[in-house]
Amino acid sequence: MSVTVRFAPSPTGNIHIGNVRTALFNWLFALKHDGKFILRFDDTDGARSKREYAEQIASDLEWLGVRPHRVEYQSKRTEAYDAAVERLKKAGLLYPCYDTPEELERRRRIRLSRRLPPVYGREALKLTEAQRSAFEAEGHKPHWRFLLPNFDVDPFATRRTEIHWDDVVRGPQTVDLASMSDPVLVREDGSYLYTLPSVVDDIDMGVTHVIRGDDHVTNTGAQVALFEALGANAPAFGHHNLLTTTTGEGLSKRSGALSIKALREAGYEPAAVAALAVLIGTSENVAPSASIEVMAETFRPSSSSKSAAKFDPTELDLLNRQIVHQLPFEEVSERLKAAGVNVDDPRAGQFWNVIRANIEKVRQAGDWWPIITDGPARDIVLDGDDLDYARTAFSLLPEGDVDASTWSAWTSAVKEKTGRKGRALFMPLRIALTGRSSGPEIADLLPLLGREGIAARRP
Ligand code: GLU
């Protein structure tokens, strides 16, 4: 069977690392099964959905290496949903309700006080034609509920009705349709809630696997019934655990800090964000993959744990560093250029190989380039004994070409002449050469500076 998945964000804000988990679970699943990936914007909420969010989401996905085969907008598919509504109405499976939120809340409380499940009691089904007309005459508009198939003949005598599926992530699942309210599919103003358009699209677009967050497990019960009511077979489902902040709060499209846009702007590597988004909260090691294709080969949705996983930004820093330390020059040259590195300089490639082990973000290389090409930073300045010592040491630089062995020859000579060793020996030299107390190995820096560059740094 060919596989088709979809990632269906509502463009009501910037996507965050938790949304990306869903996107990547789908993308890796599609890659692994040589399937198709649809990016579907669930933008039926006209007031909150924004074009610029949709564009940002598409660009964030591209940055992460996700390449949708097809892009769809629910706002352009209203006719298909209208047709499904007609079909459900004809079958007597969609009924108008005039209950106000206050009435619903009052009944919910009563049910709870009687120790009954707080589900909708289908009061609207009892309305006579005359009562409905009266509501309409008073200007009330109905919302529409889907009649769940959780009864034999009498909708007021519900019975346990189990929906089963073998979840791609969680294994065998059961939901009881008698434990939930008939879902509202259409609002008073005629707009659609997510439930119906999602099912209509999944049918029309041939979606074979719906992979999404485990906050949708209950929805799946109702949606399976809806697939059947619309004459279709339900697809396979997978529900992954959600990510929370380190303090356990849910991530939201409004909490900007963990948005992909913010992480991107902060200079994180897409491979670090992707690896963490997928591997956190699974039994796999959180380690970078050579590529997204390699990640897809080893990806096992079922390795996710059942409980929510905490997203810890320090883990992202760690992963990012590991990735940056391995990035080849060719892959970063554009970004180095943007950070102020003259990538046409013959030293640029070697500079990157030396510097990458000491930075966390690619753009930090930009701080080091002038230190190598122009002169030391002024973070620390030598004085007193250290200044005298450094002057002596500089006059002991070995003759000849400066290469990988220069540092060891130089330090031996300095040690012999001054008696200094360890930190007391090298730190003043590091400071004289770079103006900083930490940085790349001095042995590696010297060939980059060259004899002239070193001489020019004599304090
Ligand atoms: N728009 C829905 C959401 O973001 C999609 C859920 C689904 O994948 O079915 O939660």
UniProtKB/TrEMBL annotation:
Keywords: Aminoacyl-tRNA synthetase, ATP-binding, Cytoplasm, Ligase, Nucleotide-binding, Protein biosynthesis. One of its GO terms (cellular component) is cytoplasm. Its main location: cytoplasm. InterPro entries: aa-tRNA-synth_I_cd-bd, aa-tRNA-synth_I_codon-bd_sub2, aa-tRNA-synth_I_CS, aa_tRNA-synth_I_cd-bd_sf, Glu-tRNA-ligase_bac/mito, Glu/Gln-tRNA-synth, Glu/Gln-tRNA-synth_Ib_cat-dom, GluQ/Sye. GO terms for molecular function: ATP binding; glutamate-tRNA ligase activity; tRNA binding. Residues 401-457 form the Aminoacyl-tRNA synthetase class I anticodon-binding domain. Residues 3-317 form the Glutamyl/glutaminyl-tRNA synthetase class Ib catalytic domain. GO terms for biological process: glutamyl-tRNA aminoacylation. Coiled coil: none annotated. The keyword Aminoacyl-tRNA synthetase applies. It is an enzyme of class 6 (ligase). It is found in: Cytoplasm. It catalyses: tRNA(Glu) + L-glutamate + ATP = L-glutamyl-tRNA(Glu) + AMP + diphosphate. ATP binds at residue 253. Monomer. Catalyzes the attachment of glutamate to tRNA(Glu) in a two-step reaction: glutamate is first activated by ATP to form Glu-AMP and then transferred to the acceptor end of tRNA(Glu). HAMAP family: Glu_tRNA_synth_type1. Belongs to the class-I aminoacyl-tRNA synthetase family. Glutamate--tRNA ligase type 1 subfamily. This is Glutamate--tRNA ligase. It comes from Oricola cellulosilytica.
